Amino acid sequence: MLFNSLDFLIFFPIVVLLYFIIPKKIRYIWLLVASYYFYMCWNAEYALLIGVATLITYISGLFLGIFEKTWLRKLVVALSFISNLGILVFYKYFDFILENVNVVLNQFGAQLVENPFDIILPVGISFYTFQALSYTVDVYRKEIEPEKNPLKYALFVSFFPQLVAGPIERSKNLLNQVKKIDKIKLWNYDRVANGVVLMVWGMFQKMVIADRVSIFVDAVYNNLHAVGTLETVFAAVGFSIQIYCDFAAYSTIAIGAAKVMGFELMENFDTPYFAKSIKEFWRRWHISLSSWFRDYLYIPMGGKRKGKIRKYFNLLVTFLVSGLWHGASWNYVVWGGLHGVYQIFGEITAPVRKKLVKIFKINDSVFSYRLGQVLFTFSLTTLTWVIFRAETIGEALYFFKRMFTGWNPWVFFNEGLYNFGLDRVEVNILLVALVTMFLVELLKYLKNKVISDFLMEQNLWFRWIVVIGLVVACVVYGEYGITFDSNQFIYFQF
């Protein structure tokens, strides 16, 4: 069930209405039922997988609450990780592993191994698996108490707004709210209105911007042999915009939907394309995942406590694993590795860059310097997004070849850029939408206010004009319908 579908527009109001009117003692049961129904709309069998992950980590938490000996507690955590990651590896990486094994066997002329399974990747398995595992670690560290109520814990793992694409919530935040669900004040106009505005803004990002940009991006990637420098550059920048608007849209809608019901989810994106370095980019991009890897992988490996060489090693491993988390392909591993290399190179060269600034008397406090940093960081991330988007490493390399060897400025004059699915009217719609998004992002960056907070401070007439305008834009200019096949959120595949 997609957020931008008619099914969800029927499902969500019904869930909220019943949530508001049923006795407070059984609210969590109703949300649990709704969450499992939401997930089973993709495939009823998926409920079994999330149920197994829930059961394993729930029982692990109970054992951790009983055992005092360190080795027993470590054993429980190890078994929880092995079983959950084993399921994840089977469904997400089995084909990838088998493919690479066969590549090696082929080099030695050995008989190839046939795949005995027809595996379909369950939607959101990476997200809820990591969410459940973080609970196990938090209980092990005694940062939270084990949850005794299995249904409340099950709701924490399966909470439908953020179930399939995040944010990846922590037990210290979401589980604590679930435990106090009967204390949530049901009706609060400002809170509900704030949540609805966030949902509408997320729909605008997805339907008007991301899905419209995807038409151009897909057309270029599908015709690389016939495009030149400008088309590939626009496609690369376009995918940077697409993946941000697509993924941020899901998180924004999820946060808004949860807020309507009185739950506060963690922020997942904070103007990442305004970052002045790759390190800052990862403090602003997919915050729930980057902080998960920081807290549960990078720091346990030693972080920066064991010298620079070990720090760089830990950093690179973390980003390689982060890349692999995104998908069973070497593209993602290379993408993650490059981001690790970016950060390591940035730290190593920092003293040199500071000296050069002093030698050449560059004023690093002015707008132009900061703008240069932002544009350079955006360029680096855009180049790596090419690898992320490509089907294979070979396709990514060919894309770069076309980007740097196919100079053809005449596409500006012969309207060649309009041959990739978007005519002049569509491009103008996109430009207006992008300007709107830029202003909203700038407001967040300068004032630290999301669009909903800003609107709630304004007069009622202004608030309604903006919200109605966004709704109309989604209905009139949104990309949807039976003939449109790019409306699934990108991160569903992870």
Jot down its keywords.
18 helices; globular; 494 residues; mainly alpha
Give your account of this protein's structure.
There is one protein chain. By secondary structure, the chain is an all-alpha fold. Among the domains are: 18-185, no CATH class; 187-265 and 408-485, no CATH class. Helix content is 69%, strand content 0%. It contains 18 helices and no strands. It has helices at 6-21, 27-40, 46-66, 70-107, 125-140, 150-158, 171-179, 189-221, 229-260, 278-284, 287-298, 308-326, 330-359, 367-389, 393-405, 424-447, 451-456, 460-477. Helix 4 (70-107) packs antiparallel against helix 5, helix 6 crosses helix 7 (171-179) and helix 9 crosses helix 14 (367-389). The model has no long low-confidence stretch (mean pLDDT 90).
> pLDDT average, as an integer?
90
Major sheet details: none
Strand residue percentage: under 5%
Question: Helix amount, in percent?
Answer: 55-70%
Number of strands: 0
| Terminus-to-terminus distance | 16 Å
The count of helical stretches stands at 18
Class from helix and strand fractions: mainly alpha
Task: Report the radius of gyration as a whole number of Å.
Answer: 24 Å
The shape is globular
Helices and strands, in order, run as HHHHHHHHHHHHHHHHHH
Low-confidence stretches: none
Lay out the secondary structure.
Elements: H1 6-21, H2 27-40, H3 46-66, H4 70-107, H5 125-140, H6 150-158, H7 171-179, H8 189-221, H9 229-260, H10 278-284, H11 287-298, H12 308-326, H13 330-359, H14 367-389, H15 393-405, H16 424-447, H17 451-456, H18 460-477
Helix pairs in contact: 1-2, 2-6, 3-4, 3-5, 3-6, 4-5, 6-7, 8-9, 8-16, 8-18, 9-14, 9-15, 11-12, 12-13, 13-14, 14-15
